[in-house]
Amino acid sequence: MTGGPGAAGPLRARYDRPGLPPLPDLGGAPPGIEAALVTGKAARFDRLAGLGALRGPEVPALGDVKHVEEFAARQARQRARPGRGAGGGAGPPSLGQPGWLPFSGETGRDGGMKGAAAAVPLARGDCAMTPRGRHFYAHPGPTNIPDSVLHAVGHPTVDFNGAEFLAVYDACVAGLKRVVGTEAGHIFMYTGSGHAAWEATLTNLLSPGDRVLMLESGVFSSMWTAMARDLGIEVQMVPGDWRRGPDHAALRDALAADAAHAIKAVCAVHNETSTGITVSLPRVRAALDETGHPALLLADTISGLGSIDFRFDAWGIDAAVCGSQKGLMLPVGFAFTAASARALAAHATAKLPRHYFDWTIMQGRRQKSFVGTIPTNLFYGLREALRLLEEEGLPNVFARHHRLAEAVRRCVRHWSGNNGPQVYCLSPEAASDSVTAVLMPEGHDAEAVRHRALAMNVGLGTGLGPLQGKVFRIGHLGDLNEPMVLGTLAATEIALGQQGVPHMPGGVSAAMAWLAEDAA
């Protein structure tokens, strides 16, 4: 589209309102600006202009114009001021002049901006408004960190071989065992994320060419499959429906068919954050016991530990992969494996290459963990996080997570009216109490909703892998309460409306009704 009177006509026809000053002359405007104004494809022009965040070439990449009338009025008022425009001095450049930079707010006597914000390149759908207030972080990990844990992490550096730190270390290991639900299990720790713990677990338990059975449940089961294959492990996948969870009958059949016991381990993601599904580990253990299969049971409980019930000893888990940044409410930084006596026996004959992750090297140290420097600060934070969990009591922690998760699910189920978004998990008994994946209606972009929510200082989780753009995720785990969840849901409902996503309004009220009922 080119500049000139031909474009101004449709603009005025669309946006002129009684009592408002006329829109600025578009003659000579850069094509991008003119197209944005005429078609309504610039993001909340008045807010962007107020921050001085727009320059001509960037406008075509922006979202919807909502208040172009106010923008035009500001431009007209600025031109009408003494010493400005045709009556006195050069005035501000017009839309078509080089260096044009829209702005609002206070100006100096010379017409310049006071405290003007620097121009910021913006991506499609971004909003230049600076959010205020506390960020409502609703990702499924990393999660919110309690203030007391943040303060504890700020502890001065200490000697990790000194008596002071060793006392903290021992207390943390004992606390982790209580959260994991083991008395006899051993804890091995690593500096790294949950992926590091998975690699450590696989390399310490298996040999090249060993076969494992992987239960398909979503993106993370696929990630662990790829990792195992890269390490030289053969993987047999038990297909599963990502919206319903693993096929336990198929698991039992695969184990029963393995008369030679070539399968050395069964791997399951306890809580699949990409799909919002929790896998029943007792059912996996039952399949192993019913078929008399000796395979180890390996469980990824990174996003489950400290949020939903997990019982290492009672469920017959042989190795549990855990991370610091989810239910333990810590920064990303270290991960650990809880290992059974059977796992330690398997480790004695495992031949996959390893060094930093080698449990044998770790067992030779006083800390019986880590190879190299220990992240002492995180242990002070862990001690405080464990204190918070035990102060609340693990049964109460799990009950709180279920209460908040059900509020989110009831909200989304209400939104699903009018062909709106749906809870991705279709099996109520498998719905996760730490994260809900929300499936968008066909033709609507989940990322656009996330960006709208972020403009209100609410962070939602993105869809992963093939679910990118199709789902957004609401994390409800860790340091969380009812007002935080309701605020997240309210902002999300606003974002759905702003993006024109079909839904049944009132989902937040449905969540409130559940919370009120549950508290009665």
Question: Would you mind describing this structure in some detail?
Answer:
The protein is an alpha/beta fold. It has 17 helices and 16 strands. It has helices at residues 5-15, 31-39, 45-50, 68-80, 147-153, 163-180, 194-205, 219-230, 248-257, 281-291, 341-347, 359-363, 376-392, 394-415, 446-454, 482-498, 507-519, and strands at 136-138, 186-191, 211-215, 234-238, 240-241, 245-246, 263-269, 271-272, 277-278, 296-300, 319-323, 334-339, 422-423, 435-439, 458-462, 471-475. The strands form 4 sheets. A 7-stranded mixed β-sheet has the order 2-12-11-10-7-3-4, sandwiched between helices. A 5-stranded mixed β-sheet has the order 1-15-16-14-13. A two-stranded antiparallel sheet has the order 5-6. Helix 5 (147-153) runs antiparallel to helix 13 (376-392), helix 14 (394-415) runs antiparallel to helix 17 and helix 15 packs across helix 16 (482-498). The termini are far apart. Mean pLDDT is 83; it is low at 1-21, 26-69 and 82-127.
